[in-house]
Each structure stands twice: as C-alpha cells, then as structure tokens.
Amino acid sequence: MSKPRSFEFHCYACGLACPVSKQLHCPVCGVPLALRALNTMPADALHAPPASMWHYLPLLPIPAPEAVVSLGEGGTTLLNAPRLAGRFRLEALHIKNEMGNPTGSFKDRQLSVAISHARACGHTTVAAVSSGNVAVATAAYAARAGLRAFLFMHGQAGAGKIAQAAAYGAHVICVDSPRPSEVFALCIKACETFGWAHVSTAGMYDPYNVEGSKTIAYELFQQYNGTLPEWILAPVGGGGLLGGLWRGLLDLQRMGHINQLPRLVGVQASGCAPLTQAIDRHWSFQESLQHPWEHPETIAGGIADDILFDGHTVLPAIRTTNGAAFAVDDPAIRQGVTTLAHTEGLFCETTSAVVIAALETHAERFRGQQVCCIVTGNGMKDLAGGSSPEIAAPPHIPADMQALETLLDTLR
Ligand SMILES: [Zn+2]
Q: Which residue from 296, 319, 323 is spatially nearest to 307, judged by alpha carbons?
C-alpha cells in the first residue's frame, strides 16, 4: 500500500515533523513518532451525524473506502447523565458510551484501522498482545477481513474475554506472564520471524491503529455542538485512548473548530499506575519506560499495563491541557461499576469504572463543572472473569402468590 500522503510523522517531545517512513522513532530525540493528519474536514462534514467513524476517512491513515474493514464501529452515543451529575454535584455529566461498539469496547475503532492497514499492505496473518478487548476486536475484524489472527493473551486476561476472542475463530495463546511488556517482546519477535502484521494497540510500536481513537474527539465535537466540556476523563492502560483523543482535539484546533482544549484526565487502578507515577515525578516518556510497574495487581485487568505504551502522547496530553492523573483502588472501582449501573442503567467493565471512581474520590475537583467520561467497555464481556461487582443471587420462590407476598415483605 502506498504511504498515506496526507499525513506526516510528528514528535511530541521535540516538535520535529518529517515525512512518513519506516523509521518510527524521532531522529533527534529518539521518542516514538506519531502520525499527524494534514487534511482538513469541511465544516459541513463535521455537522452531519456520523454513521460510523469512517465518516472521518480524510483524517484516517487508510487511502480509500474500499480498503476499509468495518463492522460499523464508532458513531457511539453521548448520554446525558443527570442523576449521576447530581450525585457528584457537577453542572453537567455526559457519558460517551463506547460499549455500543460492535464487540463492546472502544478498541474496535483501533482494530478497524489496524486490520484495514494490514490487509491493504498484503498481510494474511495478524498478531496482537492483549488482556482481552484488543484480542476480541482483533479476532472479529480479522474474521471480517478473512485474515488469520494469533492472540497473545497475558496474565490479566479474564476467562470471558478469552472465550469471546476464541469464538471468532482466532488462535488464542495464553502467555503465563503478568507483565504485558514481556508478552509484547514475544509477540514482536514472532511477527518479525513469521512475517505477521503486529496490530497491538501500542503507539510506540505501531503509529497507525491508535489513529482510530482520535475519532472520539471528532464525534464529541459534533455531539456537544462545538462547545466541549471543561473536563474529559478516560481510563488509561498504555495511554492510547487519551493520547489519541488529545491528538484528535489538536486536529480540531488546527482546523480552526475549537480554540481551547478540555482538561484531560487519565485514570488508572492504584494496583498498576505508571501514569500517575510518571506525572507525579515529572518523568519524561523515556524515564517512565525505565520504571515499569513491577507487580500489576488489580481487578481492572484491561488497564493493567506495566509501562505506558503510548506515553509519548498521553503524558503531553495531560501536561499541556492542565489535566490530571488519578489512581483509584479496587473497592472504589467495584463501587464505580455499581454506581453507574444503578444510577444510569449502564453496566460497564471494571476497566471503564475507574472514571466513575475518580469522580467519587475526587469530587471536589470537579464540583460545579462540566464533565465527560469515556466509558470504554461493556460489563457483560467478562461476567465469568470474577472482576465484576458482587451480584447477589436472586431468591427462588414457588409459583405462588402467598410466597411472593412473603418475599415482598422482606424487601420493604
Ligand atoms: Zn523528537
């Protein structure tokens, strides 16, 4: 496939811009390069509701519509959450519901780009490292494209997601290591050895597929009618979601659609928090890589990345928008799942619930302000994994009115 002409490589550490090439690191400072769109979207295109994220094709690194492998990802709803806003005393709270994607998580945006790119480059086999959602999305989009997929699932993977990935016909390999960076090393070596396309969602290894998460920014701009909220909160594992969202906001600023960016907040689990560690200690991306999180341990396995695979974008995303990085503990995460489900009717996975936990534990920070939370994945994906909140077993009664009335007396 020809290289996308309407993109350049950009280094967010030193500001260097250079043509897209196979050299993925900045020749000046060595930091991974990210793609930057040079195209613009006309204002009328940004006012038509997106049927899918491919509405924004001119800003994505796939050259033609016929190269796109799609299951209808993106175009997810932005839900007003007034009851939760009242609980946290916010002026307004909206939920960007990424659970509405085809396999139930925002990763579909990234894998739609990744599999489109891999197929257009002539690959017949793809491989990815994952705790769950990337594996599921890779399996689904590879099936859609007729490609073979090998999925390296590490120690954070839940049983439900392993089963979902296997259901699409992919080759699932469980690698007995709790540290994603070790599993990445194995997967990358396998891709080099066997000529597979590496489609893990880690911008430091592949600048293409993280482009998919940019489209959340474009959709929010439309859904907020051009007036974005003061804060956007997102879960952070490797950082590709928030880093991509930031770059999408920068695109909107470059095109003259917004003047000021929202303040971006990354939330991790306190059992694996390399982001808060890097922000608190004022580390550069390269310094953060020298301090991987030694023993990831949290129920939010989907974000238990021991290093910031997209630290080159997520760190400046938070620093340049005067944002914040929070870490929340497992009891707060479980409570976040319950709060969102009971209050707004949205059952998310633990990985997503960190943003609700952050609102609860840092309520003063956001009081009286406008907040958007990105809810990234569906709670039904891993009911068997033991990471969901404790859900009480329902009572059993005979088909008898007296028995029902006796039961109802206990509920009053
Ligand atoms: Zn540089």
A: 296
**Distance in Å, CA 188 to ligand 1 centroid:** 24
Å from CA of 354 to ligand 1 middle: 32
Torsion angle, CA of 162/144/234/47, rounded to 10 degrees? -160
Distance from Cα 53 to the centre of ligand 1, integer Å: 30
For the segment 156-211, what is each residue's pLDDT rounded down to a tens digit?
Answer: 677 888 888 899 999 999 998 877 888 999 999 999 999 999 999 999 999 999 99
Burial class for 111, CB neighbours closer than 10 Å (0-12, 13-18, 19+)? buried
Domain 1-105+203-412 in CATH 3.30.450.20: no
Instruction: Check residue 384 and give its pLDDT.
Output: 55
The tens digit of pLDDT for each residue in 18-36 reads: 999 989 999 999 999 999 9
State the distance from the centre of ligand 1 to the C-alpha of 288, rounded, in angstroms: 16
Going from N- to C-terminal start, the domains of the chain cover 1-105+203-412
